[in-house]
Protein backbone atom coordinates (compact mmCIF):
# COMPACT_ATOMS: atom_id res chain seq x y z
CA UNK A 1 0.00 0.00 0.00
CA UNK A 2 1.34 3.43 -0.95
CA UNK A 3 1.39 6.36 1.46
CA UNK A 4 -1.87 8.40 1.50
CA UNK A 5 -2.22 11.81 -0.10
CA UNK A 6 -2.27 14.58 2.53
CA UNK A 7 -3.48 17.39 0.23
CA UNK A 8 -7.10 17.47 1.46
CA UNK A 9 -6.01 17.14 5.07
CA UNK A 10 -3.59 20.05 4.82
CA UNK A 11 -6.15 22.19 2.98
CA UNK A 12 -8.81 21.35 5.55
CA UNK A 13 -6.53 22.28 8.43
CA UNK A 14 -5.84 25.63 6.79
CA UNK A 15 -9.56 26.14 6.13
CA UNK A 16 -10.41 25.44 9.78
CA UNK A 17 -7.75 27.87 10.99
CA UNK A 18 -9.01 30.55 8.60
CA UNK A 19 -12.55 30.20 9.98
CA UNK A 20 -11.13 30.80 13.47
CA UNK A 21 -9.35 34.02 12.57
CA UNK A 22 -10.80 36.71 14.83
CA UNK A 23 -13.64 34.46 15.99
CA UNK A 24 -15.28 34.83 19.40
CA UNK A 25 -14.71 31.43 20.99
CA UNK A 26 -17.46 32.07 23.52
CA UNK A 27 -20.02 32.44 20.76
CA UNK A 28 -22.42 29.68 19.83
CA UNK A 29 -21.30 27.21 17.21
CA UNK A 30 -23.66 25.60 14.71
CA UNK A 31 -23.79 22.49 16.90
CA UNK A 32 -26.55 22.46 19.55
CA UNK A 33 -25.21 23.03 23.05
CA UNK A 34 -21.65 23.73 21.92
CA UNK A 35 -19.76 27.01 21.83
CA UNK A 36 -16.91 27.47 19.42
CA UNK A 37 -14.66 26.57 22.35
CA UNK A 38 -16.20 23.09 22.31
CA UNK A 39 -15.62 22.69 18.57
CA UNK A 40 -11.96 23.67 18.90
CA UNK A 41 -11.59 21.44 21.96
CA UNK A 42 -13.11 18.52 20.06
CA UNK A 43 -10.75 19.03 17.12
CA UNK A 44 -7.76 19.09 19.50
CA UNK A 45 -8.97 15.95 21.31
CA UNK A 46 -9.58 14.25 17.96
CA UNK A 47 -5.97 14.90 16.92
CA UNK A 48 -4.78 13.21 20.11
CA UNK A 49 -7.17 10.31 19.56
CA UNK A 50 -6.09 9.73 15.97
CA UNK A 51 -2.49 10.00 17.15
CA UNK A 52 -3.20 6.99 19.33
CA UNK A 53 -4.33 5.10 16.24
CA UNK A 54 -1.12 6.10 14.47
CA UNK A 55 0.82 4.72 17.44
CA UNK A 56 -1.18 1.50 17.20
CA UNK A 57 -0.38 1.17 13.50
CA UNK A 58 3.32 1.90 14.00
CA UNK A 59 3.95 -0.32 17.03
CA UNK A 60 1.19 -2.94 16.99
CA UNK A 61 0.36 -1.90 20.55
CA UNK A 62 -3.42 -1.51 20.82
CA UNK A 63 -4.26 2.09 21.75
CA UNK A 64 -7.93 2.96 21.15
CA UNK A 65 -9.02 6.47 20.29
CA UNK A 66 -10.89 6.84 23.58
CA UNK A 67 -11.28 4.65 26.66
CA UNK A 68 -15.03 5.37 26.59
CA UNK A 69 -17.59 7.76 25.14
CA UNK A 70 -17.80 9.44 28.54
CA UNK A 71 -14.03 9.95 28.65
CA UNK A 72 -14.23 11.59 25.22
CA UNK A 73 -16.98 13.95 26.35
CA UNK A 74 -15.19 14.78 29.61
CA UNK A 75 -11.99 15.65 27.77
CA UNK A 76 -13.82 18.04 25.47
CA UNK A 77 -15.51 19.78 28.41
CA UNK A 78 -12.19 20.20 30.24
CA UNK A 79 -10.33 21.52 27.22
CA UNK A 80 -13.17 23.94 26.45
CA UNK A 81 -12.43 25.69 29.77
CA UNK A 82 -8.98 26.79 28.63
CA UNK A 83 -8.28 30.44 27.91
CA UNK A 84 -8.76 31.36 24.22
CA UNK A 85 -5.04 31.66 23.50
CA UNK A 86 -4.37 28.33 25.20
CA UNK A 87 -7.06 26.38 23.40
CA UNK A 88 -6.05 27.81 20.02
CA UNK A 89 -2.40 26.94 20.70
CA UNK A 90 -3.41 23.44 21.75
CA UNK A 91 -5.42 22.90 18.59
CA UNK A 92 -2.50 24.01 16.46
CA UNK A 93 0.03 21.93 18.39
CA UNK A 94 -2.02 18.73 18.36
CA UNK A 95 -2.71 19.13 14.64
CA UNK A 96 1.03 19.44 13.96
CA UNK A 97 1.84 16.47 16.20
CA UNK A 98 -0.69 14.28 14.40
CA UNK A 99 0.57 15.42 11.01
CA UNK A 100 4.14 14.51 11.99
CA UNK A 101 3.07 11.14 13.40
CA UNK A 102 1.29 10.29 10.16
CA UNK A 103 4.17 11.49 7.98
CA UNK A 104 6.56 9.26 9.93
CA UNK A 105 4.49 6.08 9.52
CA UNK A 106 6.42 3.56 7.41
CA UNK A 107 4.61 2.40 4.29
CA UNK A 108 3.75 -1.10 5.63
CA UNK A 109 2.05 0.45 8.67
CA UNK A 110 -0.67 2.02 6.52
CA UNK A 111 -2.19 -1.43 6.06
CA UNK A 112 -2.25 -2.18 9.81
CA UNK A 113 -5.77 -2.66 11.23
CA UNK A 114 -6.97 -0.09 13.76
CA UNK A 115 -10.39 0.56 15.28
CA UNK A 116 -12.49 3.71 14.92
CA UNK A 117 -14.45 5.31 17.74
CA UNK A 118 -17.56 3.70 16.22
CA UNK A 119 -15.98 0.25 16.60
CA UNK A 120 -15.19 -0.37 12.94
CA UNK A 121 -11.86 -1.99 12.01
CA UNK A 122 -10.15 -0.13 9.17
CA UNK A 123 -6.63 0.07 7.72
CA UNK A 124 -4.49 2.83 9.23
CA UNK A 125 -4.58 4.66 5.90
CA UNK A 126 -8.16 5.61 6.83
CA UNK A 127 -6.81 7.87 9.60
CA UNK A 128 -5.95 10.54 7.02
CA UNK A 129 -9.52 10.63 5.69
CA UNK A 130 -10.97 10.57 9.22
CA UNK A 131 -8.97 13.66 10.14
CA UNK A 132 -9.67 15.32 6.81
CA UNK A 133 -13.46 15.14 7.21
CA UNK A 134 -13.15 16.36 10.83
CA UNK A 135 -11.34 19.50 9.77
CA UNK A 136 -13.60 20.45 6.85
CA UNK A 137 -16.93 19.64 8.50
CA UNK A 138 -16.08 21.19 11.86
CA UNK A 139 -14.84 24.32 10.11
CA UNK A 140 -18.44 24.76 8.99
CA UNK A 141 -19.64 23.98 12.51
CA UNK A 142 -17.74 26.99 13.83
CA UNK A 143 -20.44 29.13 12.25
CA UNK A 144 -18.04 31.89 11.26
CA UNK A 145 -18.65 31.88 7.52
CA UNK A 146 -18.03 29.47 4.73
CA UNK A 147 -19.85 26.26 3.99
CA UNK A 148 -19.87 23.06 2.01
CA UNK A 149 -19.83 25.03 -1.22
CA UNK A 150 -16.19 25.87 -0.37
CA UNK A 151 -15.16 22.20 -0.38
CA UNK A 152 -13.21 20.79 -3.33
CA UNK A 153 -15.55 18.94 -5.70
CA UNK A 154 -13.76 15.62 -5.31
CA UNK A 155 -13.89 15.99 -1.51
CA UNK A 156 -17.66 16.44 -1.65
CA UNK A 157 -17.88 13.27 -3.74
CA UNK A 158 -15.76 11.40 -1.20
CA UNK A 159 -17.96 12.66 1.62
CA UNK A 160 -21.14 11.46 -0.13
CA UNK A 161 -19.48 8.08 -0.68
CA UNK A 162 -18.44 7.96 2.98
CA UNK A 163 -21.91 8.70 4.33
CA UNK A 164 -23.79 6.37 1.99
CA UNK A 165 -21.23 3.63 2.68
CA UNK A 166 -21.63 3.98 6.45
CA UNK A 167 -25.41 3.91 6.11
CA UNK A 168 -25.26 0.78 3.97
CA UNK A 169 -23.07 -1.03 6.50
CA UNK A 170 -25.56 -0.15 9.24
CA UNK A 171 -28.57 -1.06 7.14
CA UNK A 172 -29.88 2.52 7.14
CA UNK A 173 -31.74 4.49 4.48
CA UNK A 174 -32.27 1.57 2.10
CA UNK A 175 -33.38 2.75 -1.32
CA UNK A 176 -32.25 6.35 -0.86
CA UNK A 177 -30.61 7.82 -3.94
CA UNK A 178 -28.66 11.08 -3.90
CA UNK A 179 -28.69 12.78 -7.29
CA UNK A 180 -26.50 15.90 -7.37
CA UNK A 181 -27.62 18.25 -10.11
CA UNK A 182 -23.98 19.26 -10.68
CA UNK A 183 -22.70 15.70 -11.15
CA UNK A 184 -23.11 13.05 -13.88
CA UNK A 185 -23.66 10.18 -11.45
CA UNK A 186 -25.78 9.35 -8.44
CA UNK A 187 -25.08 7.94 -4.99
CA UNK A 188 -27.10 5.04 -3.69
CA UNK A 189 -26.85 3.88 -0.11
CA UNK A 190 -24.38 1.23 -1.29
CA UNK A 191 -22.18 3.81 -3.06
CA UNK A 192 -22.00 5.81 -6.29
CA UNK A 193 -23.51 4.45 -9.51
CA UNK A 194 -24.39 5.81 -12.92
CA UNK A 195 -27.72 7.55 -13.21
CA UNK A 196 -30.59 5.63 -14.76
CA UNK A 197 -33.80 6.90 -16.34
CA UNK A 198 -35.63 4.41 -14.13
CA UNK A 199 -34.51 6.16 -10.95
CA UNK A 200 -37.33 6.95 -8.55
CA UNK A 201 -37.43 8.75 -5.20
CA UNK A 202 -34.07 10.41 -5.85
CA UNK A 203 -33.16 13.40 -3.65
CA UNK A 204 -31.79 16.18 -5.82
CA UNK A 205 -29.72 19.24 -4.98
CA UNK A 206 -26.18 20.42 -5.51
CA UNK A 207 -23.45 18.15 -4.18
CA UNK A 208 -22.75 20.75 -1.49
CA UNK A 209 -26.43 20.87 -0.44
CA UNK A 210 -26.65 17.08 -0.31
CA UNK A 211 -23.40 16.76 1.66
CA UNK A 212 -24.63 19.31 4.20
CA UNK A 213 -27.96 17.47 4.53
CA UNK A 214 -26.61 13.93 4.92
CA UNK A 215 -24.05 15.04 7.52
CA UNK A 216 -26.75 16.81 9.55
CA UNK A 217 -25.43 20.29 8.72
CA UNK A 218 -28.15 21.56 6.43
CA UNK A 219 -31.84 21.29 5.57
CA UNK A 220 -33.32 18.78 3.17
CA UNK A 221 -32.80 19.98 -0.41
CA UNK A 222 -36.55 19.81 -1.07
CA UNK A 223 -39.69 19.40 1.08
CA UNK A 224 -40.52 15.84 0.04
CA UNK A 225 -37.07 14.45 0.91
CA UNK A 226 -37.33 11.58 3.40
CA UNK A 227 -36.25 11.85 7.03
CA UNK A 228 -32.76 10.45 7.49
CA UNK A 229 -30.79 9.06 10.43
CA UNK A 230 -27.45 10.07 11.81
CA UNK A 231 -24.14 9.90 10.00
CA UNK A 232 -21.56 9.42 12.79
Question: What characteristics describe this protein?
Answer:
232 residues, alpha+beta, 4-stranded mixed sheet
Quick structural summary:
With 232 residues, the protein is α+β, with helices and mostly antiparallel strands. Helices cover 48% and strands 9% of the residues.
Largest β sheet strand count, sense and barrel closure: 4 strands, mixed
Percent of sequence in beta strands: 5-15%
In the sheet with the most strands, the strands line up as 5-4-3-6
Compressed to H and E, one letter per element, the order equals: HHHHEEHHEEEEH
- C-alpha termini separation: 27 Å
Given as residue ranges, the uncertain stretches (5+ residues, pLDDT < 50) are none
Instruction: Tell me roughly what share of residues is in helical segments.
Output: 40-55%
Rg for CA atoms: 18 Å
* Annotation field: number of helices: 7
Q: What would you call the structural class?
A: alpha+beta
* Number of distinct beta strands: 6
Describe the fold and architecture.
The protein has 232 residues and is α+β, with helices and mostly antiparallel strands. Helix content is 48%, strand content 9%. The protein has 7 helices and 6 strands; from the N terminus they run ααααββααββββα. It has helices at residues 7-20, 36-59, 69-79, 84-103, 126-141, 153-170, 207-214, and strands at 113-115, 121-123, 177-180, 185-188, 191-194, 202-205. Strands 5-4-3-6 form a 4-stranded mixed beta sheet. It has a two-stranded antiparallel sheet with strand order 1-2. Helix 2 packs across helix 3 and helix 2 (36-59) packs antiparallel against helix 5. The mean pLDDT is 94.
Amino acid sequence: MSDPDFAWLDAGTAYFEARLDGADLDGDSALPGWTRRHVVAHVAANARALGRLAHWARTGEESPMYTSAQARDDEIEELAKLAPAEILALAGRTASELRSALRELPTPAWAAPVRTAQGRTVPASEIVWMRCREMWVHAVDLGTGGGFEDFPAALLDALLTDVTGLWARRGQERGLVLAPVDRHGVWRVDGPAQASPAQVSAVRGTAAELAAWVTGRGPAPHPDAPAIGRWL
